[in-house]
Write a structure and sequence with these properties.
By secondary structure, the protein is mainly alpha-helical. The chain folds into three domains: 99 residues; 256 residues, Fumarase/aspartase (Central domain) (Fumarase C, Chain A, domain 2); 67 residues, Orthogonal Bundle (Ribonucleotide Reductase Protein R1, domain 1). The strands form three sheets. The chain has a two-stranded antiparallel sheet. The protein is elongated. Belongs to the lyase 1 family. Argininosuccinate lyase subfamily.
Length: 501
């Protein structure tokens, strides 16, 4: 027997071949049973109810089918094993329903329906729940960010640009900025939810059906906001997958950036942030280590989630506009994993931020370094002494450069020394500073208090921003609660529907 004959003997001569089973059908079956089992039966129920209400099935036929559907739905999906007798989970479950009600009657369940519109509906139902969970987790994170921002209204912090010390701000100002990014990601998730939460049911294979079905009724029973009207679009469109993927990419890219900041703050050299004991690990050999592994895992999970979502974009890119496996079984697990990893990041960072310990004194001490209040010297000269701003900026630059070169800090300067430089650059003593003015210039707290313009770090302004954002966040939470409650009611109502002969 040659190698081809031996191979074909092991593979078999009919579909599905052994390799096809092991590399595709079995893994896909496991993904389907883990993610699509429950929503499959919800679609069965809604479709059968509609068929009965439209007179396509008799009420008795529908009641019998629903009894079988509900019984099979009680199976623990974890116990189901792949069988080559069935192409996928859908056919296996139809067979099991047929064992309960008869194969002919079970087959009627499939009238005016295709695996195409059913598959799209299942994906949308799952993604709808994943998007809602993401919104919930981000809202919880946002709440903690605002709580800590309020605690740290007066915690002076060095703001960085280009990774270099820039100007004084507060931790409250910084955390509110992170909240703003998270809130925009919540909005993006809502936008994706609106794209996803549309029913493709009734599109059938791609051109609808000759049966007098009611697409709107199935839409209502499944809790969708509306139907995908054009049946070709309902089956061929993949933008709901792209929207789902891109919100993961954006949210995890945004999150990864400030997570990186937290790792920097937690270094011994920086020393501003201490991660609480439940979220650090010690070294196996160096007992002094407090490794902030919770933040490190958050960073790597965020990157991994982006990778999963980018795979979705790549798999859809340049694919035909129609029903294709690229947008079906092979693609969906990337989205499931992307959302799951994103959720883990939100949960981890929420725990870290809730329990973090901030060294306020060290944070404040650092704001006296690197001349980060020197902008105020230029501003003061231009604001109250009518020195042209470019000249004022040059004076501030000279002071900063000399301070750094001599490894000093601004408080080492005497006001008379500063005034000497001012007189040299302006040619007059009209712009001389008083001791009080100089002390205000080098004071990080004063720098922050003077930045009371809308959006600035002044504690009262940050407090105002937090108050408006709490209202904003509560609206997201309320919407989430209303939608999840309504979807639960729709599902319970579907389960309670009684068909009367």
């Amino acid at each position: 027997m040659n190698s081809k004959e031996q191979f074909m003997k092991e593979e078999g001569t009919a579909f599905p071949g052994k390799t096809y089973v092991e590399t595709l059908l079995k893994p896909l079956f496991n993904d389907q049973k883990n993610h699509l089992f429950d929503v499959m039966f919800r679609i069965h129920r809604a479709h059968v109810v509609m068929l009965a209400e439209q007179g396509i099935l008799t009420k008795q036929e529908a009641k019998t089918i629903l009894t079988g559907v509900n019984k099979v739905a009680e199976i623990d999906h974890k116990t189901i094993e792949y069988s080559p007798e069935f192409e996928d989970l859908f056919f296996m479950m139809e067979f099991k329903i047929g064992e309960e009600v008869g194969s002919d009657l079970a087959g009627k369940m499939h009238i005016a329906r295709s695996r195409n519109d059913m598959g799209e509906a299942m994906y949308r139902l799952v993604l709808r729940d994943l998007l809602l969970d993401g919104i919930h987790q981000m809202a919880l994170l946002g709440s903690v960010l605002l709580e800590q921002a309020e605690v740290h209204l007066d915690t002076i912090l060095t703001a960085h640009t280009h990774t270099q010390p820039a100007q004084p701000t507060t931790l409250g100002h910084y955390l509110t900025a992170i909240y703003d990014v998270v809130e925009r990601d919540i909005v993006r998730f809502w936008n994706a939810f609106e794209t996803v939460n549309r029913s493709p049911m009734g599109a059938a294979a791609i051109t609808t059906t000759g049966f007098p079905i009611n697409r709107e009724r199935v839409c209502e029973l499944l809790g969708f906001d509306g139907i995908m009207e054009n049946s070709y679009d309902a089956i061929g469109g993949g933008d709901y997958l792209l929207d789902s993927a891109t919100v993961i990419i954006t949210a995890m890219t945004n999150t990864g950036r400030w997570v990186q900041d937290f790792l920097k703050f937690a270094t011994t050299e920086f020393g501003i942030l201490q991660v609480a004991d439940p979220y650090v690990q010690i070294s196996s050999i160096m007992p002094q280590k407090r490794n902030p592994v919770s933040i490190e895992h958050s960073r790597s999970l965020a990157s991994s989630a982006v990778g999963e979502a980018l795979s979705v974009v790549q798999m859809i890119h340049n694919t035909p506009y129609g029903d294709i496996v690229d947008t079906e079984d092979d693609l969906q697990p990337h989205l499931y994993r992307g959302f799951e990893k994103s959720s883990r990041v939100f949960k981890l960072m929420r725990a870290v931020i809730t329990t973090m310990i901030v060294d306020k004194d060290k944070a404040k001490q650092r704001t006296y370094e690197s001349c980060i209040t020197i902008t105020e010297l230029a501003d003061e000269l231009a604001r109250h002494h009518q020195v042209p701003f470019r000249t004022a900026h040059k004076i501030a630059s000279l002071v900063a450069n000399q301070t750094m070169a001599e490894k000093k800090i601004l408080s080492d300067w005497k006001v008379d020394e500063i005034n000497t430089i001012i007189i040299e650059q302006t040619g007059t003593d009209a712009a001389k500073l008083t001791e009080k003015q100089w002390q205000a210039i080098i004071c990080p707290e004063m720098f922050v208090r003077r930045r009371s313009i809308r959006g600035g770090p002044n504690p009262l302004e940050v407090k105002r921003m937090i108050a408006t954002r709490k209202v904003e966040l509560n609206s997201h939470i309320k919407r989430y609660q209303e939608i999840t409650s309504e979807l639960l009611k729709r599902n319970e109502k579907l389960m309670r529907i009684k068909l009367h002969s």
